[in-house]
Amino acid sequence: MLSLSQLSRFATHLVHGALLITPLLLSNSLHAEKIKVGYWTSGFSLGFGAVMEQLKFAEKEGLEIEWVKFADVNAPIRAIVPQAIDLAFAAPSTAAMSIAAEGVPVKIVLATQIAEAQIVVPAGSPIKSLADLKGKKIGMSPPGSATHAILGAVLEGTYGLKASDYSVVPGNEGRLWQFIAQKEVDAASIRSVTLAQMSDEVKFSTIANVVDEWKKLTKNSALPILAVTIVHQDYLSKQPEAVAKFIAATRKALEYGAKNKDKVAEILQKTANMSAEDAKAYAGQWNSAYMASFEAADVASLKRMHAIRKAMGAVKIDPPDTTFVTEPFQKSKQIK
Question: Are 232 and 99 part of one and the same domain?
Fold first, then answer.
């Protein structure tokens, strides 16, 4: 049994230890950078966002995250304008550049989603290449979208087909698949994950890959970009380190998803109520759908996409060069 003096000394050590530890705990709490992050949970950004959220990649970088989820693809864009959120994860690239061109104080700091799709035709179709689409009906995402602009540029720039040479039947992924299944269109631009989930139901043939066609058109290896991370200028100026940490977390989540597709599928079953088969097909497209990069080539690809939309009359003015901020991405590389 300890004597009274020994107990007294032991208690004193405990108090001193607590006094040393408490400031450290308070310091960690006070210095955790807070950030409100918005993302669309009804589209393909769901997979990347769900992995980020569920496995707490950003929190592991010392950030205090408030996830704000939206059912509409453009809702994160609208929310960042009044600063209801600080950062929009996987916002549509075309919309992001458009609002920046209009003077909204946002900065693009990362490319997160590839504008990938396959051009497919019903099984047995005589159409064998994009050159055969003259006078045909093509199902694709609506005018104003990144995919629509990219495909239009490819058809004209590589194959000499102007917008007046074919008919566009707009629709979302589900409708585009129905168009092909019911042979209401001659061809359609459909994302690989949709094809992977539906391939057992309808027979089709692939005549082109949008990413490959974009590279052929631009004559370089830069990817066409469907979605980007944007941050409000005020937040970036005050919390540049937090933005770099978030990008580091995104890069680590991308790498994790590429190596752990079974875990991604498991997360999707829980968060999106997907069947095991659909979740597996979705996770299987991780490498071809997602990215986490913002090199000079990525900026150039975004500017080229905007220039194409401008030439097509979809936009009238360019976003300033200051819209594209690469420093946080470069800093993220130093975060191990």
Answer: yes
